[in-house]
Amino acid sequence: MYYQCVKLRQIIIAVYLSISLDGVADSSGPYLASGIKIGEVDQTSAIVWVRLTHEKRAHFDKLPILTKGLKRNEKDAESMPEGVARGMAGEVRVGYVATNEKRAFAWTDWTQVLAENDFTHQFKLADLKSGASYSCIVQVRGVGSDKLSSTTNGSFKTAPKKTQPVPIRFIVTTCQSVRSIDSGAQGHVAYKTMLELDPHFFVHTGDILYYDKAPLCKNIKQARAKWNLIFAYEHNMNFHRQVSSYFMKDDHDTLKNDCWPGQTYGDLTFDQGLKIFREQVPMGKKTYRTIRWGKHVQIWLTEHRDFRTSNRVEDGPEKTILGMEQKAWLMRTMKQSDATHKFLIVPGPIVGPDKRGKNDNHSNKGFSNEGQQLRNFLAKQKNTYVICGDRHWQYCSKDPQTGVLEMGCGPVNDQHMFGGAPKADKTYHRFFGKKGGFLAVTVVDGKAKAEWMSADVKGNTGKPEIRYTELLGSR
Predict the structure, then answer these.
(1) Mind listing the pLDDT tens digit for each residue in 118-151?
(2) Domain count across the chain
(3) Does residue 69 form part of some domain?
(4) Angle between helical axes of 270-280 and 220-230 (0-180°, round to 10)
(5) Does residue 280 sit in the same domain as residue 376?
(6) Rounded Cα–Cα distance for residues 424 and 438 (Å)
(7) Is residue 58 in a domain?
């Protein structure tokens, strides 16, 4: 019945869009070549991100790598071409309604986008119903025009109240790039696969793109151009207009590999990287946050770049990745939570083990003091698990000292295996695979399981291969 209601709402929206454009379409733009993103959803609010463009579709022909990617170990030092999806001045508004409600769409005011924000705008939708499915419409017109030039529809789910024992499924992935696209102008096929699972929400743990991997981004214009492109791919765009998402950042989508405050990459500064990230994804006041999804699920998303100490500083009690304020917040809110299952989602590993030569995360020697502090704390929290991004392989490991369970979701596909991986370690690994895809977590009747999946579907089943399943709650 639920899916019938959703389908009916989609038909109604399609009819509405065709009527609203009939005879009044403005073919001069602006358009939505970079798609929309819906994120930061909680029980009563959501953010809809939009960007207006000159063209209906990105210029994927600007550079061969934009649709062909790179072969393993192939070198390509070309710079990111500007103008792959040029921004354009215009006005935009969002209409939204709960899928099962027989009422008119509520509308935001028409808002003009600004060049200083790369022609983006983020609409905060408030006073929403908890545990509900919502449909939305984004309408675009030229400045001062009364004719629509572009429109698209989307959907998302709001979080249930903390007392509701409802089933929840969410998906986590990490590390995607232009150089590892696997389906040309359609982008990353994982997004098509993930959408078929109809998740309640999605988390990207960072390295959403790579400034320091071909094509290179060493100034603000090039950095913005790569953001404009990465969500213009068909699969990527289609997914993010239909799923509630939470975006986290790591080193490569802040500045460069293993970066910290005060550094530069070409003409791009660390502070500019922070600004661009918040500009290009839906984001609230803080980049670290916790969200409750019903009685059985609560997630924590931590920030690992903004407050960190230089990697070069000698390790000790003062050396930190989280910063004192964020760490105190994390420990306080976790202790206060009565959720059945608690998931700490982090950009980089806390347990590991990592590959040789790394010194940038809590599983490395360079941050061993804070890493041990976190593992000791997490071990005392009931049914608490770490979900880790950044690493280019999928794994499930259990710290032999504290028993903390860490689940590495792996990169968006098998093509993103560049950079190497460690060998399986029986003292840690319950599962170890040198492949990419995503992690799906499902909680039903208070029982949780994690499934490591491939990006591609298996045979003619239409479903992804499940590489490993871990039943949670037995630690």
Answers:
(1) 999 999 999 999 999 999 999 999 999 999 999 9
(2) 2
(3) no
(4) 30
(5) yes
(6) 19
(7) no
